[in-house]
Specification:
By secondary structure, the chain is an alpha+beta fold. The chain has three helices and five strands. A hairpin with a 6-residue loop joins β1 and β2.
Length: 101
């Protein structure tokens, strides 16, 4: 999954935009867009989406899911701390012999 924090120019709100593997995105979503409205992602709809994804995989089609989350100040601070921690861990592994094994 790849994510980026984007500022909505209209509202100045920060949004976490993500794109990635369908099952991983769906496992973290509680709502979906049905083409007209944002709806609750109930179990039946989730199963239908996963079934469709499976059919597309069997037909050798690739599917990618997109998601967004409006960041509040608290959630933005948590995301920022998580990114900082991940960066720290990755940098420390690059500088150690344990990075490759």
């Amino acid at each position: 999954m790849t994510s980026a924090v984007i500022e909505d120019r209209r509202s100045s709100a920060l949004q976490l935009m993500s794109v990635g593997e369908v099952r991983r995105i769906l496992s973290n979503c509680t709502e979906y867009w049905d083409g007209a409205d944002i709806m609750p992602l109930v179990d039946d709809v989730r199963k239908s989406l996963l079934d469709t994804h499976q059919q597309w995989n069997l037909a050798d089609c690739d599917a990618t899911a997109c998601a967004y989350f409006i960041l509040t100040l608290i959630s933005f601070e948590l995301v920022f701390k998580l990114f900082a921690y991940i960066t720290f861990v990755l940098r420390s592994r690059v500088h150690s012999d344990s990075f490759f094994g």
